[in-house]
Design brief:
9 strands; 10% strand; mainly alpha; two-stranded antiparallel ribbon; Phage tail protein beta-alpha-beta fold
Length: 363
């Protein structure tokens, strides 16, 4: 019995060992397959990249040839230079640059291709340091036409083109950032405007502005007539002139009488006020004028030394004390408030017929 158990355990152990071996073998096989697939993929990508480079190389060379035949040597130079950047050993690109050199040599006599190429290389380097990458690329391309075997020129051309692309990318990024900031600001303004509208919706309604009350003065026909007469007399008094006078200790009554005789204007004196001002004795005044003067001005001068004053009435001049004149000047005026148009809504009451009870009964 013990032997049988040991044999079973060994068999089970061998079985599990075999399973593990099979798993390891399968895993290694899968890993090998994955590695092979990855390698095939890399080879395929490299092949695609090479095919792409060949297509681009052919495209630039064909474009360069087309520009060369059309006599556009600058454009032909750029295309052949781009072809050399892809394949620095491209014979077709070098032949194209050589052809451009020959054509340009026919058009203008240059001192020496190699010397001119060095000058253009130096000029391109200076422009490169000044961050004028477009100008540097143009100088390097022209230098490559004159010396297409020069590897330094080709490297400088590649470097200038890369930096030019980076510089353009930075400029585009700045423009994009500026547009983004502007869009963000506009969005913020719109959000604030929307929030303001929401807040306004919760505010209590604005009370309508109360219009000021209009007042209309009511003037009776009698008052209007008196005012017109007073204004007419005032105009007449402004035209009544009094000659130059010289009076000394003259009685006020005599002075007023003389003024009435000269001007023909009625002047009435309040005898009670005159007696009070003169304290029972005749009121004497002294004054003189040099030139002819209006009546009211002469009256002002004559009454200045007394406690009297005057008021122009509709048909005469009234002389009294200032206090009494002030009291008499108090007038009563009537005003009417002017409201808006009053709207009256007519409401008619319905006529109800009395209801009669149909039920009858007796006690």
């Amino acid at each position: 019995m013990p032997t049988t158990k040991i044999q079973k355990r060994r068999a089970i152990s061998l079985f599990y060992t075999a399973l593990i071996l099979l798993f390891v073998i399968q895993s290694n096989a899968n890993a090998a397959d994955d590695a092979k697939k990855a390698a095939d993929l890399m080879i395929s990508e490299k092949r695609i990249e090479k095919e792409k480079e060949k297509s681009m190389l052919k495209y630039f060379i064909d474009e360069g040839k087309g520009f060369l035949e059309a006599g556009n040597y600058d454009a032909a130079t750029e295309q052949f230079s781009r072809a050399l950047e892809i394949d620095s050993n491209s014979a077709d690109a070098k032949r194209g640059l050589k052809a451009v050199q020959v054509k340009m040599g026919e058009r203008q006599k240059i001192e020496s291709p190699s010397v001119m190429a060095k000058k253009l290389l130096k000029s391109g380097q200076e422009k490169y340091r000044a961050k004028d990458f477009d100008g540097a690329i143009l100088d390097f391309q022209n230098a490559l036409v004159l010396d297409y075997e020069n590897g330094d020129i080709l490297e400088w051309l590649k470097r200038a083109r890369r930096q030019g692309d980076v510089d353009k990318a930075r400029t585009n990024q700045k423009d994009l950032d500026k547009d983004t900031d502007l869009a963000t600001e506009e969005k913020t303004v719109q959000e604030k405007t929307a929030m303001l509208e929401v807040e306004k919706a919760y505010l209590p309604p604005v009370k309508p502005e109360r219009k000021p009350v209009e007042i209309e003065e009511i003037v009776s026909p009698e008052e209007e007539k008196e005012e017109k007469a007073r204004q007419a007399l005032m105009k007449k008094l402004s035209e009544k002139m009094v000659p130059a006078v010289s009076l000394a200790e003259a009685d006020i009554r005599d002075v007023i009488r003389q003024l009435m005789d000269i001007t023909g204007v009625t002047i009435v004196i309040d005898e009670g006020a005159l007696a009070k001002a003169g304290e029972g004795a005749p009121l004497k005044i002294t004054f003189s004028t040099v030139n002819e003067m209006p009546l009211l001005e002469v009256l002002n001068i004559a009454l200045r030394a007394t406690d009297l004053s005057y008021r122009v009435e509709p048909s005469y001049i009234w002389i009294s004390t200032p206090e009494k004149l002030a009291k008499e000047n108090l007038v009563t005026k009537t005003y009417r408030l002017k409201y808006g148009v009053r709207r009256i809504r007519k409401v008619e009451l319905e006529k109800f017929e009395p209801k009669t009870s149909s039920s009858g009964g007796g006690t």
